[in-house]
Amino acid sequence: MGWYDVFARFYDASLEGQYVQQRAAAAEALELSPGINVLDVPCGTGQSFDGIAPAIADGGTLVGVDLSGGMLGRARARVERHGWKHVHLVESDVHGLNEEAIATQAGRAPSFDRLHVFLGMTAFPNWEDAFANLWSLLAPGGRAVIVDVHAEKPGFQGRMVNLVARADIRRTWWTPLETVAEHYERTELPSTWQHGGKIFLATGTKPA
C-alpha cells in the first residue's frame, strides 16, 4: 500500500476540486439525519466527511476506513481541524474489515445504517468480494451509496486514471449492488475528460 501513502501527499491538491459535485450528490443520496451511523470505505483523506459528518451529529457516528496510513493521517488532520468527536478512523484492508477491527480502533462497532463507497469499487483488488464484505456490515434496511467511474474502453486519460489510482475503470462495479439490493437505482453524474470515463451513482437498500 506504499503507493497510496505517497499519493496522499498530493491527493487533495490534485483531486479534491474534481469531485465536489459528485461527493455532494453522494451525501444527498445517503439520506442522512442526526443519529445515523455511516461506514465510509475507502475514506482516503476524508474528502467526503464534510458532507456527511455535520448531517449525522447529535448521536450519529461516522467510521472512515482505509488501508493507507498516509491517507488516514490526512483524514485525521481534517477531523481534528473540524473538531468532529463522532468521526472515527480505522486502518484496515477492506477484505479483513469486521466488527472486531472496527470496535478495536473506533471504540465500538455501531450498527451501520449507511454504507458509502466513493471511488473504491474500481480500486479494490477483489472488488466483488470486497463489496460482499461491506454489505455484510450494513444493517438490514440500511442504504448503500456507491460512486465510481466507468469506461468500457478507456482512452488515454482513462488509462492514466487506472495507472495513478491503481484501478480498473472497465469494471461494471455496480452489478454486485444491483444483484442484492432492493430499490436499486443507477444514475449518471456530471463528468469531464479528467475523470477518464463516466461517473455513476448507484443506490440500493439491504432487505430487512
How would you portray this structure in words?
With 208 residues, the protein is of the alpha/beta class. It has one domain (2-205): Vaccinia Virus protein VP39 (Rossmann fold, 3-Layer(aba) Sandwich). 39% of the residues lie in helices and 25% in strands. The protein is built from eight helices and seven strands; from the N terminus they run ααβαβαβαβαβααββ. The protein has a seven-stranded mixed β-sheet with strand order 3-2-1-4-5-7-6, with helices on both faces. A hairpin with an 8-residue loop joins strand 6 (182-189) and strand 7. Helix 1 (2-15) crosses helix 4.
CATH hierarchy class name: Alpha Beta
Largest sheet: 7 strands, mixed
Q: What class would the helix/strand composition place it in?
A: alpha/beta
Distance between the termini: 36 Å
Instruction: Provide the number of structural domains.
Output: 1
Uncertain stretches of 5 or more adjacent residues: none
- Total helical elements: 8
- Tell me, rounded to a whole number, the average pLDDT: 92
Topology-level CATH name:
Rossmann fold
What is the ordering of alpha helices and beta strands? HHEHEHEHEHEHHEE
Tell me what portion of residues adopts beta-strand conformation. 15-25%
In order across it, which strands form the biggest sheet? Answer: 3-2-1-4-5-7-6
Report the CATH architecture.
Answer: 3-Layer(aba) Sandwich
Radius of gyration, in angstroms, nearest whole number: 16 Å
Total strands: the figure is 7
Helix content: 25-40%
CATH superfamily: Vaccinia Virus protein VP39
From the spread of the alpha carbons, the general shape counts as globular
